[in-house]
Amino acid sequence: MALARRKPVLRLIVRRSLSALLASLLCTATFAMPGRAHQSPPRATAWGGDSRSIDRAATQALRLARGHRLVILGDLHGTREIPLLVGDMIDRTSRRQPVTLALEMPRSEQPSLDAALAARDAAVARRQLLDRPWWRRGDNQHDGRRSVDMLELIERLRTLRQQGRDVALLAYDVDESVMSSIASADASARDEAMAARVRQACLDLPRRRIVMLTGNFHAFLRIPSYMAAPAGIVTAGMRLADLAPASLRIGALRGQGWFCVDKACKAIPVGPAGAPTEGEFTGAISLPALHVGRLVTLPMR
Length: 301
Hints:
The chain has helices spanning 2-32, 52-64, 81-94, 110-118, 122-130, 148-162, 176-185, 189-204, 236-239; strands at 70-75, 99-106, 167-173, 209-215, 246-252, 256-261, 264-269, 283-287. The protein has 301 residues and is an alpha/beta fold. It has a single domain (52-259, 270-287), classed as Rossmann fold, CATH 3.40.50.11550. It starts with a helix and ends in a 14-residue tail after the last strand. Keywords: Lipoprotein, Signal.
């Protein structure tokens, strides 16, 4: 009689154990199913936004750049988002191949860029840059290229290099001491010098991908009819067109960047990056919004 009474209890225990095991297996199978991946929560940006838009834009940019060793990014100066976008692109690219990020900085800044990348810690790296006169500008003469966001982009590359990635920086703009004379003599001379510097890097470093971040006008592969430009001007992008670059325009649905127009520097609304219609770019990337970058406004020495 005692054994007969135990049988229902044993059956109940076995049934519950099997149910628990089955539930565990089903839960494991759900996370292991092909094509299903755990989605990390969005990373908060410095201004409280969702960085997934940056991730998506970087994915789009790399897809449009596939098969091109030279990638020209048409920058809107003085934003928070674009340095983050470029950082993501360099991070992903450097997992597969060596990459050089070419920045619209005077070539005289090359030693400080090299020193910053080689520095052992972030504080030393930043000091290598900010001690240079180029970073010392007031708001009324600030074209947006000198920002904390750009400093953080450079720091991101330094961190990648410390992790063993083959990343480098290239300063390709003309020195400021000759900028005014070039501008008055020939509107295309600066673009010619910038293109020559990037071209030489492509020739000297045939196994590296070159990502050139430049003002969106310099990135034009041809002057479109909707752009009022000086007659006969030839952009850096046009001079590099024979290298078959991917030239990508970056825009946003709303927001602002920091630009200089008619010798006045200020926050200016930006527009969306619509699909190129006249071959001026090979593709376009549009972010949901752009915000004015955190400008570096160190006093002149």
